[in-house]
């Protein structure tokens, strides 16, 4: 027995193509639409057995608000989300909103049909491999790119950070020494240590690197923004 359904996708061409394929397989398509804002209203008014809801951004905040509205006003409607291979947050957000299933956009029509039938029967319709991939990512999250500014700050003592800020402001050795109350020779030593730790050959390069990585912004934000220092005490 065919399913009474609706296909909703922001891309009308995709919605109509899927609707046509399902009609040929004996299902009754009440509507194939691409309402970017009125999806929930349309589904609530037509009351299908199953709504296929397409999205290109399953992890984006608020993308499943229509599902929440549909399940609130028409709890008997089973919503199956069609989307890309999502992040674990995408799958979790879909089911948390009340969806009965999640099917990848590149699934064959037979897979979509199976998901529709399971959802109509009150079962969860999601590929076990998709869930396994999501759980694997949750348990073994991909490493995030390093924050270069934070990494560089960990290399410097608080006194060297102050020296770097003064270098970036264009102060020469004499002004650095006077501003910090240290001897010019000590200031010169601090500057050389900063250059060595940052891996640059000149004060201009150090200032440019600090600006590019946000190191100066972190330093200006105060001690609370600095990462824990490693190694021994600050140089005098």
UniProtKB/TrEMBL annotation:
Keyword Transferase attributed: no
Domain HTH luxR-type residue range list: 149-214
InterPro entries the record matches: CheY-like_superfamily, Sig_transdc_resp-reg_C-effctor, Sig_transdc_resp-reg_receiver, Tscrpt_reg_LuxR_C
Domain (Response regulatory) ranges: 4-120
Keyword Lipid metabolism: no
CDD domains: LuxR_C_like
PROSITE patterns per UniProt: HTH_LUXR_2 (PS50043), RESPONSE_REGULATORY (PS50110)
Domain of life: Bacteria
Keyword set, alphabetical order: DNA-binding, Transcription, Transcription regulation
Gene3D superfamilies listed in its UniProt record: 3.40.50.2300
Protein name: LuxR C-terminal-related transcriptional regulator
């Amino acid at each position: 027995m065919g399913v009474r359904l609706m296909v909703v996708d922001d891309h009308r061409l995709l919605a109509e193509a899927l609707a046509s394929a399902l009609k040929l397989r004996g299902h009754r398509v009440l509507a194939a639409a691409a309402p970017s804002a009125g999806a929930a209203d349309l589904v609530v008014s037509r009351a299908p057995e199953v709504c296929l809801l397409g999205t290109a951004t399953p992890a984006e905040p608020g993308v499943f608000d229509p599902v929440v509205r549909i399940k609130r006003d028409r709890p008997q409607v089973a919503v199956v989300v069609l989307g890309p291979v999502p992040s674990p947050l995408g799958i979790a957000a879909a089911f948390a909103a009340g969806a009965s299933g999640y099917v990848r956009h590149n699934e064959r029509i037979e897979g979509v049909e199976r998901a529709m039938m399971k959802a109509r029967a009150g079962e969860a319709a999601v590929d076990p491999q998709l869930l396994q991939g999501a759980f694997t990512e949750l348990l073994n999250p991909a490493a995030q790119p390093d924050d270069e500014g934070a990494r560089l700050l960990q290399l410097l003592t608080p006194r060297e950070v102050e020296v770097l800020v003064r270098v970036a402001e264009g102060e020469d050795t004499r002004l650095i020494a006077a501003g910090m109350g240290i001897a010019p020779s000590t200031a010169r030593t601090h500057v050389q240590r900063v250059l060595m730790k940052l891996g640059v050959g000149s004060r201009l390069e150090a200032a440019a690197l600090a600006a590019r990585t946000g190191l100066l912004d972190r330093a200006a934000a105060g001690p609370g923004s600095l990462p824990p220092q490693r190694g021994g005490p600050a140089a005098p």
